[in-house]
Amino acid sequence: MLATISQALPRLSPSERRVGHWIIEHPKEAANITLARLARECETSEPTVVRFCRHVGLGGFRELAIRLTEALSSPTTYVHRDVSPDDSASDAVIKVMDASIQSLIEMRSQLSSMPIDEAVIAMKSARQIAFAGLGASGHVASDACHKFFRLGIPCSSLSDIPMILQFAAITQPDDVLVLLSHTGRWQDFARAAKLAKARGASVIALTNPDSDVAREASLLFPCPVIEDTSVYTPMSSRLAQLALLDAIHVALALAQGDTASENLRRSKDALKF
Amino acid sequence: MLATISQALPRLSPSERRVGHWIIEHPKEAANITLARLARECETSEPTVVRFCRHVGLGGFRELAIRLTEALSSPTTYVHRDVSPDDSASDAVIKVMDASIQSLIEMRSQLSSMPIDEAVIAMKSARQIAFAGLGASGHVASDACHKFFRLGIPCSSLSDIPMILQFAAITQPDDVLVLLSHTGRWQDFARAAKLAKARGASVIALTNPDSDVAREASLLFPCPVIEDTSVYTPMSSRLAQLALLDAIHVALALAQGDTASENLRRSKDALKF
DNA sequence: GGCCAACATGTAGTAAAATTACACCAATAA
DNA sequence: TTATTGGTGTAATTTTACTACATGTTGGCC
């Protein structure tokens, strides 16, 4: 959580940045401070603090308190430091691994606030599911597709803008569109989300909570953006997305009950030697 | 905290005991419920709930929320237990996440025994790199390809047997073939490895160390096989492979020095808005 | 049985805290 | 200049936790 905040700092307005700084410097006190006092402490107004919370992907000030106590009571190993050009190869490799582990741990701690049950319900009765992603997320999409289709639900993966928009334009009410994007900045994604939602389809987004795509989605799985401070920084957030999709996949399989076990076992048997 | 509550239960009045019971049965929801809703849920009044809090040694209702989130995000090491059909969705999701984290942690601890430097040397002077994988590993392969080509080295990804064999048959001494396989059981992979090695190419394998593919490779990155005891078990080993490739990628970029930063920055700039 | 005491519980009010709506101001582009 | 946008604060609204007080309910004692 603190990491999420410090990552968000650069793209916040001055007053909000003061709030972020104060929290990072006084995490203990921040955990159960009141809105009014925090505002006074940072020499700003209450709404600004609330806006700050929204910008770092929280629902409101109350959630901030919850997330902070959570963060403070879970030990943080595997802290991520940037890879620097004069690292030895082995140093660098360990740092990258730590960053990956860290991003998974962060995601784990946020699982409780994600709409997993809702997503499972939507997918369970879906006519078809489409996974859409560009670039690196495109691979995540096809991986997810490859995984979910084994549950017996028609799946497809879309990895270019025209296809995504076309798909969105012909969705039906019980279709599910899963949008994968790290930054959430692609305007066409937001457009596709709006389009699909207008036609009654469910739009699930795994993306930066502070983005147009996130705002247009019917269900949002917030994925913190790793700001690329260094060109060497790998795409750990992609790992987190994959793991999250794994988790949703299993939850869906459970919800399907016998059908799923049956389908999974059959598709595994087909690969036997 | 939950223990404290159940300990206190017997010496509480009936209504307060209902409150205690409900909290123990729904700890997750209890962590960020409102006073009014909790009272309604237990069919009692708000002051009773507050009195309950006082009786279990808390200052008030607000403190209850804090203590609960603390208790819930407690250490709980990331030990993996299999997902069972009668898990609730949230239980299952956490287990899957834990399994993923665990497999990354395991891989991290084995990094020192992996031939990273050798792999980097081979790749640095490679004429081309091909990543080969079938099924789920196919996605890992194309992901890796997408990542490494940005370092300026010609890359390709192969995801079916004929292509892999054909590629192996025409390799040249400074080509690198990266084989991705969970089990290492595909005989054709071992054949491709032998073929490519005979023509002088470097064969790097990310696979089960106890397999034919592993034995044929010139460089081996051992990836522990997760035995699929349950159909629900997700593909955490694939995550580990991805993370490992991330790490190698960064190590290679460092070894390339300025060239790599330059290439990476350029390919990033190409996506700017 | 009637009366009192102690406790349990709920009603209604209060103070504080979070959130929202709206207005203002400064910086920037037309 | 004027319009527009984004950042910010003021003030009103709603929600939330807590408190004071009233009402019942039980159990003992005369």
Give short descriptive properties of this protein.
homodimer, 273 residues, alpha/beta, Arc Repressor Mutant, subunit A, Rossmann fold, 2 domains, 5-stranded parallel beta sheet, 14 helices, globular, DNA-binding
* Structural domain tally of chain A: 2
H/E series of chain A, N to C? Answer: HHHHHHHHEHEHEHEHEHH
How many helix segments of chain A?
A: 14
Report helical residue fraction of chain A. 55-70%
Uncertain spans of chain A? none
The pair of chains with the biggest contact is: A-B, 69 and 70 residues
| Mean pLDDT metric of chain A | 84
Q: Give the CATH superfamily of the largest domain in chain A.
A: Glucose-6-phosphate isomerase like protein, domain 1
Structure description:
Two copies of one chain form a homodimer. Chain A has 273 residues and is an alpha/beta fold. Chain A folds into two domains: 2-73, Winged helix-like DNA-binding domain superfamily/Winged helix DNA-binding domain (Arc Repressor Mutant, subunit A); 114-269, 3-Layer(aba) Sandwich (Rossmann fold), CATH 3.40.50.10490. In chain A, 57% of the residues lie in helices and 10% in strands. Chain A contains 14 helices and five strands. Chain A has helices at residues 2-8, 14-25, 27-30, 35-41, 46-55, 61-73, 89-110, 116-124, 136-148, 161-169, 187-198, 212-216, 236-256, 258-269; strands at residues 128-133, 155-158, 175-180, 202-207, 219-222. The first copy, chain A, has a five-stranded parallel sheet with strand order 2-1-3-4-5, sandwiched between helices. In chain A, helix 7 packs parallel to helix 13 (236-256), helix 10 (161-169) runs parallel beside helix 11 and helix 13 crosses helix 14 (258-269). The longest helix of chain A is centred in the middle third of the chain and has 22 residues, at 89-110. At the A-B interface, helix 6, helix 7, helix 8, helix 9 and helix 13 of A face helix 6, helix 7, helix 8, helix 9 and helix 13 of B. The first copy, chain A, binds a DNA duplex (30 and 30 nucleotides) through residues 13-16, 34-36, 44-48, 50-51, 60-62.
